[in-house]
Amino acid sequence: MRSVVASGLGFVTCIGKGKAEVADSLCRMRHGLSLYPPFDKPDCPVKVVGQVKGFEVDSIEQEDWTLPADMPPLRLEQLRSLPPHGAYALHAVAQAIADAGLRPEDISNPATGLYTASGGSTSTLFRHLERMHRMGPRRCPPQGIVSSIAGTLNFNLVSYFRILGSSAGFVSACASSGHALGAAVDEITLGRQERMIVVGAEDCNSDTILPFAGLRALSTSADPDKASRPFDKARDGFVGTGGAVAMIIEDEESARRRGAEIYCRIRGWGQASDGYHTMMPHPKGEGLARAMKNALAAASAASEDIAYLNAHATSTQAGDSAELLAIRSVFGMGKSPAISSTKALTGHGLSLSSIMENAFCALALQGGWMPGSAHISELDPECAGLDILRETREGAFSLAMSNSSGFGGANVSFVFERV
User: Which of 370, 210, 256 is nearest to 306 (CA)?
Assistant: First the structure.
């Protein structure tokens, strides 16, 4: 079985664009949350979002977008097929390819594949459908479908980067990019591919984020410094965000042969389902506990070997509580790894969140630090006996775990190893 390593990272997030800025924000516990002008209405209970800076992509007409100066070149046809998060993803993948030191011929060959994760572009789909109903189907833009539905990242990125290997899009809500990464690991482990690009992305706008207010899942705090507070006793919901994160993973022998910088080794991953409720996690976190145990078994690691755990913890009462119970059931009382939720800094990126936090673990392992869990005023009593990081902890460590959970009780867990 081949060993799989991460050799390239790319970030377009509310806490930074590029690995240096993101690592600095994580170490300094500097959040990227702010008041969101479109939510500044009396009838809107939600006020705070993790906004992506440097991209003006709200217009339905892509020609009106303002993109960063270092954006990969786009022909008009390519631009018109992108959703907003497609622009984020294209930038993140280009960063990761450059970071891994890969040439175009390393990317466009049958040994390299690409897996993506997103929920599609709600705003783009809505505007195209509204135009169709108002003006008739022949007035729909030809690229309206490929720029909006859930597979949009896959359609656009496979075409843009001339991918010849395995490709697919994954949709399992907030576990989506975790499933994409896990399947990509398996492709390499089983010898089907030498290298995989994995990217998760989401729009950052009202149409993507605000519908969660109907679930009473979003924080109603108007204070960006307190809105996202996983593990705090008074937490009142998550803060939405968008962006994109890309990871290049490859066969370790191949990476070493070409002298690539290696961030970490992916020791193993596991998944399991709650089989409980469409939206709510199992109250005891049973599915997530099984996913963690499966990841440990795949990694041939014991629970006490895990030094740091990046929790899914979104800052909802039910979700955080269920995960805490799952952690206790796996690690036992008094044997806790250091635990934090970086969603206190970024907010919750939905399909993006798993690959984003997996990439954070890669940065932390390579850098020798563990990011703290910010904005905790009063720690939830359910955290008693667990090592919840309140500040960044310096020092090298060997193994990290990262958890993700999504609608329908989809759970994914990874074990990463310092190289």
Answer: 370
